[in-house]
Amino acid sequence: MSTTDHKTRSIERKLNVIISLLLRIANSGSDLTLKEQIRNLASFGLSSPEIAEIVGKKVGYVSKELSILKREAT
To answer: H helices then E strands: how many in the chain?
Structure first.
């Protein structure tokens, strides 16, 4: 892995931590479900793997929830 790749991954990891912390702060005082958190992150254009990393779930779980949300929206 090149130095640039390593730095990029490090920055990406730190940004995901920041997003996770901001999500927790935003949700403190409210009872947003994990499904609602996933919906919010998806509305910002994040992919299933990115959302999974942020919320601490497997990609398959997030994909399933997004599929259910999409079905509910129609």
So the answer is: 4, 0
Query: Residue 13 and residue 7: Cα distance in Å, rounded?
Result: 10
Query: Domain locations in the chain?
Result: 3-73
Write down the pTM of the prediction: 0.73
Amino acid code (one letter) for 34: L
Structure token digits, residue 30: 């409210």
Tokens of 7: 């730095």
pLDDT in tens, the chain (74 residues): 688 888 898 898 889 888 888 877 877 777 788 998 899 889 888 899 989 988 899 999 999 999 999 999 88
Q: How far is CA 52 from the centre of its chain?
A: 5
Residue 25 tokens read as 């702060």
